[in-house]
Design brief:
- The structure is a single chain.
- The protein is 73% helix and 0% strand.
- It is mainly alpha-helical.
- It has one domain.
- The chain is globular and about 45 Å long.
- The termini are close together.
Length: 162
């Protein structure tokens, strides 16, 4: 039982690390604004699938890692991802029964909350308002949600993570 628990935890951590790598992966300037928040998508999935193992603390730690990797204000993403994790856990029983296209709309709302909180923090420290392209990653994340869901669900089933 303990080995199975450790194995499952390792897969969860590996998927989050892969999301962090995708977050800092260099992209051409033309598609830089299309980069989805991989870390938020992975966090939302694990909060929906295993709310008893992945929670607000995990979102906070993941957010601190994102802050460190991206050079943003320390705690900015930690606060936003903690809120996203809380909302995901609170709604997970309702969301899990939805079809994927409705889940995608919920993920759009969660990603928009994350972007909105980051926008609010940037405004509070005096940074200028970003252009409308600031919201594009949330839309891209919504369209990528079905693939992220299927890939992570298959990993969870293959390694029997529960």
């Amino acid at each position: 039982m303990a080995d199975q628990l450790r194995q499952g935890t390792g897969i969860i951590i590996l998927t989050m690390l892969a999301a962090l790598v995708l977050t800092i992966l260099p992209l051409p300037d033309a598609v830089q604004t299309l980069r989805p928040p991989w870390y938020a998508l992975v966090l939302i999935y694990w909060c929906f699938a295993l709310p008893e193992r992945v929670g607000v603390g995990t979102g906070w730690l993941l957010g601190l890692m994102v802050d460190s990797l991206t050079g943003s204000l320390l705690g900015q993403h930690a606060l936003a991802l903690s809120l996203v994790a809380y909302l995901s856990i609170t709604l997970h029983l309702r969301i899990r029964i939805f079809p994927l296209w409705q889940q995608s709309l919920t993920v759009l709302v969660l990603l928009s909350v994350e972007r909105l909180l980051s926008l609010w923090i940037n405004g509070a420290i005096g940074r200028p308002t970003p252009p409308l392209e600031y919201w594009v990653p949330a839309l891209v994340g919504m369209f990528l949600w079905p693939w992220v869901f299927v890939i992570l669900r298959d990993l969870r089933r293959r390694f029997r993570i529960s």
